[in-house]
């Protein structure tokens, strides 16, 4: 590192410390903002906001209190687009900002609070109810501690604690993942908590004047800067205790119902898991994760342990690339008795073998001792759209649907213990919130194609599995064929996709379709005849299935056909106490930004069954 660069980091500390020390008068920033507003706009250069946070142009005499009189003009205001639409014909992918790592503060008429220079000895707990705050000035007071409640102010971008008497920082400081400036000049800090490593957006930490801090900390800061110091703290932090294991939950029975004994032979366990493709697991997207915990080998080994520990009969994975499937998961699971159906996204512009091996897709692994593969399908949603005459004629299909390469993998299975047919889907719907209409169209096309596959499967006269005891089920109609749809739907429970899957219909004027034109979908609405239910529907959905600093919510599901499958148990939520003390996943305990969903299901008995003898007769008639 050059002397000039080393000097620049140290000089920035000295310069920022001098500016912070000058802001010692009561309500310095509020007064500066008021003074700036009282001067006619033509009489001075407009006051810059703390929104401009690079140390090269930041001054403590500049205040955000006078900026953005219209809140909607502020960057990151809810309701404003977080991402730009991709140009026509260009594919989106996770590496182009899929993950919302910066949260937007709730809309409010003010977002800054200046309590500097007041001689404060303590902070009222009520302060931490202002969770919308983005700028908080507490410098030049007599504070000796910073309450743990500071962790509630998750939208803070600037926190000024200059010239107090603080000796330690609470671990909750690490929850301020949006923080860009943390000014701690002239305090009595003796150490820094390891949780500071989670502040991956931090551009400046001010530590000058804390003479009791270890020399190594100040040396790293002076020689390499804030980013290097935070990275070092993050990668060397001790691993926290793991969360309590997720518990299995059984659906409650109504007072009038009686639980019928379940035939163990009719039961099977299923898991779905978006495992976070390696090419998307970058420090740019997941800067809060230690580099060693983001490494592919660590994450793969952790996922392997989760899959094997679940002992699921069927495992559905999303975001699994060709290389990981062929070199790791296929041999690993094959050795444990699993067979597989895997398809990757079709990207015709990929030329080299290495590029092709990095393409992700959807996989289904199933125990050969439990299931027999009858057929398999790759569903490409953009190609399914072209099969419909009413869709392929619309501009929105070509401009919005055709340039998305999402797929679903489908396996038609025969259950060896009961002879039951089962359709399993592992799907991955488009991610971008700006394309709610595309998500809904993809979901509709998936359900439409499944109806065709049900009919195909219904018409098949299959030989009974070897060793089957008792008759094979006879299904009254095609929609009675058992179906399980697993995947990352990138759609919350208030979305059109969820409404379509759970109720069977979405109106033509649904808000997710906006003013788009999608043939009969937007003329007549969307509907399907397959009765589906989320496995968590009777228990309320989980608090989240995807957890990052900028988004926490449910977007992964297991949908089951209610006419032919019953839910016996589901895997419960992540320990809430653990979750509220981490900024997001992945981390050392969770190898993906998604969590796996699991359920124990059983086949409902059918009124009519096909004996081995009559089945053979039916086959002969065919």
From TrEMBL:
<dbReference type="GO" id="GO:0000289">
    <property type="term" value="P:nuclear-transcribed mRNA poly(A) tail shortening"/>
</dbReference>
<keyword id="KW-0378">Hydrolase</keyword>
<dbReference type="GO" id="GO:0046872">
    <property type="term" value="F:metal ion binding"/>
</dbReference>
<keyword id="KW-0694">RNA-binding</keyword>
<keyword id="KW-0804">Transcription</keyword>
<dbReference type="GO" id="GO:0003723">
    <property type="term" value="F:RNA binding"/>
</dbReference>
<feature type="domain" description="Endonuclease/exonuclease/phosphatase">
    <location>
        <begin position="271"/>
        <end position="594"/>
    </location>
</feature>
<keyword id="KW-0479">Metal-binding</keyword>
<keyword id="KW-0677">Repeat</keyword>
<dbReference type="InterPro" id="IPR001611">
    <property type="entry name" value="Leu-rich_rpt"/>
</dbReference>
<dbReference type="InterPro" id="IPR005135">
    <property type="entry name" value="Endo/exonuclease/phosphatase"/>
</dbReference>
<dbReference type="Pfam" id="PF03372">
    <property type="entry name" value="Exo_endo_phos"/>
</dbReference>
<protein>
    <recommendedName>
        <fullName>CCR4-Not complex 3'-5'-exoribonuclease subunit Ccr4</fullName>
        <ecNumber>3.1.13.4</ecNumber>
    </recommendedName>
</protein>
<feature type="domain" description="Disease resistance R13L4/SHOC-2-like LRR">
    <location>
        <begin position="128"/>
        <end position="210"/>
    </location>
</feature>
<dbReference type="InterPro" id="IPR055414">
    <property type="entry name" value="LRR_R13L4/SHOC2-like"/>
</dbReference>
<feature type="compositionally biased region" description="Polar residues">
    <location>
        <begin position="85"/>
        <end position="103"/>
    </location>
</feature>
<comment type="similarity">
    <text>Belongs to the CCR4/nocturin family.</text>
</comment>
<dbReference type="InterPro" id="IPR050410">
    <property type="entry name" value="CCR4/nocturin_mRNA_transcr"/>
</dbReference>
<dbReference type="GO" id="GO:0030015">
    <property type="term" value="C:CCR4-NOT core complex"/>
</dbReference>
<dbReference type="GO" id="GO:0000076">
    <property type="term" value="P:DNA replication checkpoint signaling"/>
</dbReference>
<dbReference type="InterPro" id="IPR003591">
    <property type="entry name" value="Leu-rich_rpt_typical-subtyp"/>
</dbReference>
<keyword id="KW-0539">Nucleus</keyword>
<feature type="compositionally biased region" description="Polar residues">
    <location>
        <begin position="46"/>
        <end position="70"/>
    </location>
</feature>
<keyword id="KW-0805">Transcription regulation</keyword>
<keyword id="KW-0540">Nuclease</keyword>
<keyword id="KW-0460">Magnesium</keyword>
<dbReference type="GO" id="GO:0007089">
    <property type="term" value="P:traversing start control point of mitotic cell cycle"/>
</dbReference>
<dbReference type="GO" id="GO:0016593">
    <property type="term" value="C:Cdc73/Paf1 complex"/>
</dbReference>
<keyword id="KW-0963">Cytoplasm</keyword>
<dbReference type="Pfam" id="PF23598">
    <property type="entry name" value="LRR_14"/>
</dbReference>
<dbReference type="GO" id="GO:0006260">
    <property type="term" value="P:DNA replication"/>
</dbReference>
<dbReference type="GO" id="GO:0032968">
    <property type="term" value="P:positive regulation of transcription elongation by RNA polymerase II"/>
</dbReference>
<keyword id="KW-0433">Leucine-rich repeat</keyword>
<feature type="compositionally biased region" description="Low complexity">
    <location>
        <begin position="17"/>
        <end position="44"/>
    </location>
</feature>
<keyword id="KW-0269">Exonuclease</keyword>
<dbReference type="GO" id="GO:0004535">
    <property type="term" value="F:poly(A)-specific ribonuclease activity"/>
</dbReference>
<dbReference type="InterPro" id="IPR032675">
    <property type="entry name" value="LRR_dom_sf"/>
</dbReference>
<dbReference type="GO" id="GO:0000932">
    <property type="term" value="C:P-body"/>
</dbReference>
<feature type="region of interest" description="Disordered">
    <location>
        <begin position="17"/>
        <end position="103"/>
    </location>
</feature>
<dbReference type="GO" id="GO:0006368">
    <property type="term" value="P:transcription elongation by RNA polymerase II"/>
</dbReference>
<dbReference type="InterPro" id="IPR036691">
    <property type="entry name" value="Endo/exonu/phosph_ase_sf"/>
</dbReference>
């Amino acid at each position: 590192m050059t002397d000039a660069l080393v000097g620049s980091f140290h000089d920035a500390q000295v310069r920022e410390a001098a500016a912070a020390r000058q802001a010692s008068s009561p309500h310095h920033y509020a007064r500066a903002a008021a003074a700036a507003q009282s001067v006619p706009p033509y009489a001075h250069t407009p006051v810059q906001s703390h929104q401009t946070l690079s140390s090269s142009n930041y001054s403590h005499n500049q205040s955000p209190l006078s900026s953005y009189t219209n809140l909607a003009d502020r960057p990151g205001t809810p309701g404003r687009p977080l991402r730009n639409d991709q140009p026509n014909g260009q594919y989106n992918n996770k590496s182009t900002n899929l993950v919302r790592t910066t949260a937007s503060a709730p809309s409010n008429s003010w977002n800054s609070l200046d309590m500097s220079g007041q001689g404060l000895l303590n902070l009222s707990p009520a302060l931490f109810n202002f969770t919308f705050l983005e700028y908080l000035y507490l410098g030049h007071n007599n504070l000796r501690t910073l309450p743990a409640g500071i962790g509630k102010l998750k939208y803070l971008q600037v926190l000024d604690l200059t010239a107090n008497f603080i000796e330690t920082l609470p671990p909750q400081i690490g929850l301020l993942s949006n923080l860009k400036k943390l000014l701690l000049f002239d305090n009595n800090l003796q150490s820094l908590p390891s949780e500071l490593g989670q502040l991956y957006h931090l551009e400046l930490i001010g530590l000058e004047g804390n003479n009791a801090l270890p020399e190594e900390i100040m040396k790293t800061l002076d020689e390499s800067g804030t980013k290097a110091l935070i990275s070092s703290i993050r990668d060397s932090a001790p691993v926290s205790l793991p969360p309590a294991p997720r518990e299995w939950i059984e659906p409650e029975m109504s007072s009038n119902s009686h639980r019928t004994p379940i035939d163990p032979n009719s039961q099977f366990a299923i898991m779905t898991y978006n495992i976070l493709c390696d090419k998307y697991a970058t420090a740019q997207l997941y800067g809060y994760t230690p580099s060693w915990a983001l490494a592919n080998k660590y994450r793969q080994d952790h996922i392997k342990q989760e899959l094997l520990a679940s002992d699921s009969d069927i495992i559905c994975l999303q975001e699994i690339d060709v290389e990981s499937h062929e070199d790791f998961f296929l041999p690993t699971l094959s050795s444990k008795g699993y067979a597989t159906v895997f398809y990757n996204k079709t990207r015709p512009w990929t030329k080299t073998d290495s590029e092709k091996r990095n393409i992700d897709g959807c996989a289904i692994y199933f125990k050969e001792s439990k299931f027999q593969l009858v057929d398999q399908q790759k569903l490409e949603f953009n190609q399914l759209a072209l099969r419909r005459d009413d869709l392929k004629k619309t501009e929105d299909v070509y401009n919005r649907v055709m340039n998305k390469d999402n797929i679903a993998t489908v396996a038609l299975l025969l259950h060896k213990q009961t002879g039951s047919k089962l359709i399993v889907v592992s799907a991955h719907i488009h991610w971008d919130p700006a394309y709610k209409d595309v998500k809904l169209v993809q979901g509709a096309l998936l359900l439409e194609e499944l109806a065709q596959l049900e009919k195909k499967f219904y018409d098949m006269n299959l030989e009974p599995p070897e060793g089957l005891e008792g008759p094979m089920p006879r299904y009254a109609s095609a929609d009675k064929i058992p179906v399980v749809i697993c995947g990352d739907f990138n759609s919350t429970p208030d979305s059109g996709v969820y409404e379509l899957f759970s109720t069977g219909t979405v109106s033509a004027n649904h808000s997710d379709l906006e003013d788009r034109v999608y043939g009969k979908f937007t003329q007549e609405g969307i509907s399907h005849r397959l009765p589906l239910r989320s496995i968590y529907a009777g228990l309320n959905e989980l608090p989240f299935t995807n957890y990052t600093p900028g988004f926490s919510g449910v977007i992964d599901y297991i949908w089951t056909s209610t006419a032919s499958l019953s839910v016996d148990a589901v895997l419960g939520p992540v320990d809430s106490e653990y979750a509220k003390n981490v900024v997001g996943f992945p981390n050392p305990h969770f190898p993906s930004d998604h969590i796996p969903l699991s359920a124990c299901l059983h086949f409902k008995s059918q009124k009519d069954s096909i004996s081995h003898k009559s089945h053979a007769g039916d086959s002969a008639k065919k």
